[in-house]
């Protein structure tokens, strides 16, 4: 790739800057698509996997995410298979007694976009199919980004192909690292800054399983669940199950959180493992028969357990013209269902700020990336903290705190308005998360923030 000096590039406007994206997860795909839609002409995506093999599991598609997908022109195909969430039932795991029931019939009207559940593969395919139509995006699958070689006068990094061919060096003007919770680029940026990389063990792990409708068809109680527009959460001490229909109600998605015992002794690189069905049943031994009947439908070899990790808050997401995106900079516990939504919001904001760069010099691009950080850091920190807090509340064991929580659940049920201890289902929290139009805020605040960074 030809090297441009700052002088040349500043005259040519910013849309021809060379943009490299690490990772084709939700954040990377959304970055590529959002930047292409803004008219950037030279976008390359580097993904270590040889294709988009997304783990089959469900995902909640909240209105703040749907707003962006809709503007990027890829919501229609995802919505075709999605289920509107109209209610949430939070239950005591042991007895199946409902602690509260939240009705949310007016989400679409209130926020302009629905809250849906969907299949992760459908979200990824929607983003990827739309991005594939953009001629300005070039795809490099089976290519691991090993590390950053230099930051100035342009960023260069080494890519190692999976096919055994020789590593090559790539030069770009902007590097967006959407390489997930285990981010290589984050490690390099932190090392450059002399800041220790601290991956935090949450002490929690998750089972993620999917059940075909046919397996549930003979059980009326199960059939009612998959035919509903409801997210159901069963909670207990240090554990919970959350479940909802996906894929046009042909699949029932279930995921759990429980204390991490199986990974505790494993090397730090290990994140997923095939779990044992018997061990899973043991962990939830005191949960009600309905949850056990659901768990029992999982074929023995198909229990998959994930370790849940986060990272200590980062002092910065930006170094020169390199920026971190999504789980690479704000990994979160899943209890607020906002991880992918935050990654896609990051991408949309990056496209807004880079499109407003006055030129493509390193100084201007760095300022734009710092505006991105200013626009995003407070919000993502709030949501990451809220997810952790919600998890602590959901997982309370016997005692005064749990009694108070259950009183609040009951009060929310009676009033229909009050704050709900399960934060994702709480109308006040939903208002804060769903009404935030990150693209509009970026457009409104860009000039002021950019000037403040002179
Ligand atoms: C149990 C569970 C349930 C969840 N439920 C929800 C939910 O309901 N709603 C929601 O919004 N979020 C949810 N999330 C969170 C969500 O899945 C993540 O936050 C989101 O996928 C992050 O996207 P990302 O693009 O930042 O990272 P990832 O999706 O992790 O993508 C990173 C990509 O980078 C690639 N990569 C990594 N290193 C390199 C490298 N060196 N070179 C090249 N490529 C590389 C990886 O192969 C991968 O494709 C959940 C998470 C969990 C664990």
TrEMBL record:
Q: Which organism is it from?
A: Phialemonium atrogriseum
- InterPro entries attached to this UniProt entry: FAD-bd, FAD-dep_Monooxygenase_BioMet, FAD/NAD-bd_sf
* Protein name, UniProt field: FAD-binding domain-containing protein
Keyword set, alphabetical order: FAD, Flavoprotein, Monooxygenase, Oxidoreductase
This protein's superkingdom?
Eukaryota
Q: Which family does it belong to?
A: Belongs to the paxM FAD-dependent monooxygenase family.
Protein's UniProt keywords contain Ribonucleoprotein = no
Any one GO MF term held by the record is: monooxygenase activity
The UniProt record lists the keyword Oxidoreductase:
yes
Cite the FAD-binding domain residue spans from the record.
18-385
